[in-house]
Amino acid sequence: MIKVLIADDHAVVRKGLKLYLGLEENIEIVGEAIDGEDLMNKIKTEAVDVLLLDIDMPKMNGITAIRHLVSEVPDVKIIILSMHAEEIYGATSYKFGARGYVSKDADPAVVISAINAVHNGGIFYSTNPTVKNKREAESAVKLSKREIEVLKLISAGRSNKDISEELRISDKTVSTYKQRLMSKLGAKSVVDLINYSKQV
Description:
Layout: E1 2-7, H1 11-21, E2 27-33, H2 36-42, E3 50-53, H3 62-72, E4 77-82, H4 86-96, E5 100-103, H5 108-119, H6 134-138, H7 145-155, H8 160-167, H9 171-185, H10 190-197
Parallel strand pairs: 1-2, 1-3, 3-4, 4-5
Helix pairs in contact: 7-10, 8-9
């Protein structure tokens, strides 16, 4: 029996997963966590084989949680379950120790496949599916010094005009950098850029 804990701040996601996964004969849901702190408390008191972990959680985001979990409960296999594209957080989560990444847009059957795969010692990523790709995963996205500067200013809530004045470049150039960043990172919005900036 694979003991699974679900960590997500959205009740509908937790309940939906619990209902669906509960139909599997070899899977048992042993707990739910609503934020990062709740997760860290429960993971130490429950016997957990696989953790389904959301990235965007209150009190402690998923990436930070992975770093703590790998050192404190190394036997727990972590699968990221996120609304963000794998291209944005896949390499980072893999680098820090997650064994799988599943989009919330995926069919529930994919979640079951991921749970079985990582429980059996496998890796469940679509962009870097095996350990031999670790080097590519860790350097999947290369940003120039200027791109990183623009990204950090965007994440600080600065407008294009503010960025252009601080970096002494034109508004048009700022827009070009922003579009380039979105393309490189597979981001669909400025929010995605801000989320990614927290990891660089």
